[in-house]
Specification:
207 residues; elongated; 31% helix; alpha/beta; Maf protein; 7 strands; single chain
Amino acid sequence: MSAAPAYVILASASPRRSALLHQIGVPHRVVAPGLEERRAPGESVAACVRRLACAKAQQVWERTARAAPMPDALPVLGADTAVVLDDEMLGKPQDRAAALAMLARLSGRSHRVLSAVALRSAGGLAVRLSASEVQMRALGARECDAYWESGEPRDKAGSYAIQGYAAVFIAALRGSYSGVMGLPLFETAALLAEAGVPCWQVGPSGA
């Protein structure tokens, strides 16, 4: 008889992160954290994404562990991603004008994407960081406006989704594609392995 799947909890409401976790065959359930995501004064971007990833994992761990004996509490994955240009974190656009302004700044330039993933388990809290460099081609005002009208930029950090229509904007990528999407799978798999949670337990569809 095969062993029961080793489940984890994903502390994120992002459907992209859930899909990425399914991609590497890790069964999971989603519990969204309730956390204010803001960079502290004087805090580096790398420190910020690490702190937020850890805080999300820890918060959901504490919430869900109350319902189960500590040895049986499921490991919790938390993640945080930042699009960084000139040491400024580009968040989700508030409106069309903000999105177009971000895209204009990213146009023809290289920017960084930092993505941290943290795992809270009975063994403690561990975190890893993925750093990627994305080169965007020059963008025209009309295509940026059309991209906004597609609806895709509205809930995306930096006002773009590399896995969506914005793939045509990306001239080069050095680093982790999944990290730019929001969950660096190499680092995630390493953390899961350390906690005894294997990948490839289910198919890419999650079935």
